[in-house]
Amino acid sequence: xxxxxxxxxxxxxxxxxxxxxxxxxxxxxxxxxxxxxxxxxxxxxxxxxxxxxxxxxxxxxxxxxxxxxxxxxxxxxxxxxxxxxxxxxxxxxxxxxxxxxxxxxxxxxxxxxxxxxxxxxxxxxxxxxxxxxxxxxxxxxxxxxxxxxxxxxxxxxxxxxxxxxxxxxxxxxxxxxxxxxxxxxxxxxxxxxxxxxxxxxxxxxxxxxxxxxxxxxxxxxxxxxxxxxxxxxxxxxxxxxxxxxxxxxxxxxxxxxxxxxxxxxxxxxxxxxxxxxxxxxxxxxxxxxxxxxxxxxxxxxxxxxxxxxxxxxxxxxxxxxxxxxx
Amino acid sequence: xxxxxxxxxxxxxxxxxxxxxxxxxxxxxxxxxxxxxxxxxxxxxxxxxxxxxxxxxxxxxxxxxxxxxxxxxxxxxxxxxxxxxxxxxxxxxxxxxxxxxxxxxxxxxxxxxxxxxxxxxxxxxxxxxxxxxxxxxxxxxxxxxxxxxxxxxxxxxxxxxxxxxxxxxxxxxxxxxxxxxxxxxxxxxxxxxxxxxxxxxxxxxxxxxxxxxxxxxxxxxxxxxxxxxxxxxxxxxxxxxxxxxxxxxxxxxxxxxxxxxxxxxxxxxxxxxxxxxxxxxxxxxxxxxxxxxxxxxxxxxxxxxxxxxxxxxxxxxxxxxxxxxxxxxxxxxxxx
Lengths: 326, 336
Description:
The complex is a heterodimer of chains A (326) and B (336).
Chain A: E1 3-18, E2 24-40, E3 44-48, H1 55-62, E4 70-75, E5 78-79, H2 85-92, E6 95-98, H3 112-122, H4 128-141, H5 158-170, E7 176-180, H6 188-205, E8 208-213, H7 216-222, E9 225-230, E10 233-239, H8 240-245, H9 250-258, H10 264-269, H11 300-304, E11 310-313, E12 316-318
Parallel strand pairs in A: 3-8, 3-9, 6-7, 7-8
Antiparallel strand pairs in A: 1-2, 1-4, 4-5, 9-10, 10-12, 11-12
Helix pairs in contact in A: 3-4, 3-5, 4-5, 5-6
Chain B: E1 7-20, E2 23-36, E3 40-44, H1 51-58, E4 67-76, E5 79-80, H2 86-92, E6 97-100, H3 104-107, H4 114-126, H5 130-143, H6 149-153, H7 162-173, E7 180-184, H8 192-209, E8 212-217, H9 220-226, E9 229-234, E10 237-243, H10 244-250, H11 254-262, H12 301-305, E11 311-314, E12 317-319, H13 327-335
Parallel strand pairs in B: 3-8, 3-9, 6-7, 7-8
Antiparallel strand pairs in B: 1-2, 1-4, 4-5, 9-10, 10-12, 11-12
Helix pairs in contact in B: 4-5, 4-7, 5-7, 7-8
């Protein structure tokens, strides 16, 4: 399968100002620091990491929702960071986002119909009747009823709202959807519904997903490939079975060990690695390997030299001098 | 239910209703359970199932109006908390029963230092003077593994990370040596590695102090790692109540049974997750009969007509399902 979307060496540093009137630069948040990724058409790339690791920023950069400081993003062979406004608008149609919080991402003053039809209006799609028809169709696709068009978001439960968000994302028949924590705000029984829906839609419409989540179990369920991020860098990347069966980077190992299993017997038998402390600040990330401050395998070299993301086993990349499971 | 400790808390027939313009919301409808010294009980359910209101009712913290505890008893060490006047119950809150909430940022006051906020309950409940209270507060911060406790004591909540704020909340909750801790989704707002730290901390404190913990959560993974018994709630009612292993491996209620199968797991890849159709019912217009019947894969006519009682299907294992006794057989019949 051809590479559909590829990012090379993405960098994004956010300047931090200090002082209200004469603001001066007091530092930069190194949100994304040299990230390369690719997704194959019709598959799902899971992007995992804790809050603040830069996973959402990577997604935003790949959609060019924010400008990158450095790097390239190839979408079907073209570097979209070099496109002008008009060309970009055309590309945009095929890229959509589903957001985390269905309570915040739907305008409470717009009816469901208006929400779903807005992208079609913006992109000058179709006549009013056609838009209406398409919106009704979309509601059915996501498991709601056409008569819901006239209602307002507050009349819906969290799961239903997320379905509205999915319908809006599908409105322009996109090919790529970034799912930014689409289920983490939902109840357990509803999470499964949305995950299954996303999978069905992927099959029906050959969608490509970049699935951002902090929950490794959810990512395992939905992704073909998984990339783990820590402090603005990708520390490990592999096809999902490889990653889950033999994680190489100590951070991935710790992350997986921290996820509780819904299985009391396994939970009691498990030996858990508990990382100490918090994630360091991305303003002043540790030298060398960024994980060395919390790593139990740390040696001198880890604080001196930065490990490169290299193949540690066939198809399995990790950025660590002393990887596990090799 | 057999446990080693003495019975610390007994909730009997608790009913908490909210009187709203749209009608009466039966948030907690006839809930009963026990909690023994040192026991860890998980109250599990989806949002709006009444688990948090149950916790608030125990401490008589339900906002009135619109909420009202209509019926029931909450016996804590032999005394009914619901019959206490304000002054008496204030002695229980914080002093005998500590509570921590989901979002530590909204439960901490942003304009006071962490130290000040930990010190306050100590001064009020234990009657220590300012100096002693400060000393105690620093000890508590150390106990919850906050590094550089003395320095941290003087900081404000916004200077703390999410995990540290939750640690500070825990320090506050255990400051007066309570016998029981109510933890309402204590790790939900935190990252996984921090969640593991917090659950480990709660577990350690429980062992060290023989603390009874009532853990309110929707996360079946967290429950599996921490709790001994679990109470599954649905639409304000208890639908299953047993030792956790019985519920996880031998559930006798279709809601709990399907919930177990609907969560994605780290240790296995499932092609499709089992789903529970629909969404939880509105608590104003509850369906007649079993509230879960409209979503239940195994429902029969009787489920729409009659409300199933909570019955003991095996010693210490309760389920509110018409088919609880022959759950598996009934499931097989439906499947065929």
